[in-house]
Design a protein that fits this description.
The longest helix has 14 residues. Helix 2 runs parallel beside helix 3. This protein is of the alpha/beta class. It has a single domain, classed as Response regulator (Rossmann fold), CATH 3.40.50. The protein is about 45% helix and about 20% strand. The relative contact order is 0.17. Strands 2-1-3-4-5 form a 5-stranded parallel β-sheet, with helices on both faces.
């Protein structure tokens, strides 16, 4: 049996997390979820997902802080991270790239577009 590729979704909006989970599972991925930065970082360290979708804007510990933690931790530094951001946050996009984000997607987006990103980065960073 082929092991499903694992995607970790980190977003503080539970509805968004559930929607990502539903869509990605339908596309054949195993989805791990976290609703805040510390929980997401812990899940990444413990579960070693194949790809992380990380929201930038979150209360307390934002996505940029989590990104820096992920890239500083040896066990998670090579996991591709796709930042999810709102339209018009170009400064955040540049900052995310500086800290090691693999790419970004701007909300609102088409699900087909997101799935293309996921497939692309899971293919490029195959285990």
């Amino acid at each position: 049996m082929i092991e499903k590729r694992r995607v970790l979704v980190i977003d503080d909006e539970i509805e968004v997390v559930e929607l990502f989970k539903k869509r990605l599972e339908k596309a054949g991925y195993q989805v791990l979820t976290a609703t805040d930065g510390p929980q997401g970082f812990k899940a990444a360290v413990e579960q070693k997902p194949d790809l992380i979708l990380l929201d930038i804007i979150m209360p307390d510990v934002d996505g940029m802080t989590v990104l820096r933690q992920l890239k500083a931790q040896e066990s998670t530094s090579n996991i591709p991270v796709l930042m999810v951001t709102a339209k018009g946050m170009t400064d955040s996009i540049f900052e995310a790239r500086k800290y090691g984000a693999t790419d970004y997607i701007i909300k609102p987006f088409q699900w087909d577009e997101l799935l293309k990103f996921v497939k692309r980065y899971l293919g490029m960073y195959a285990k």
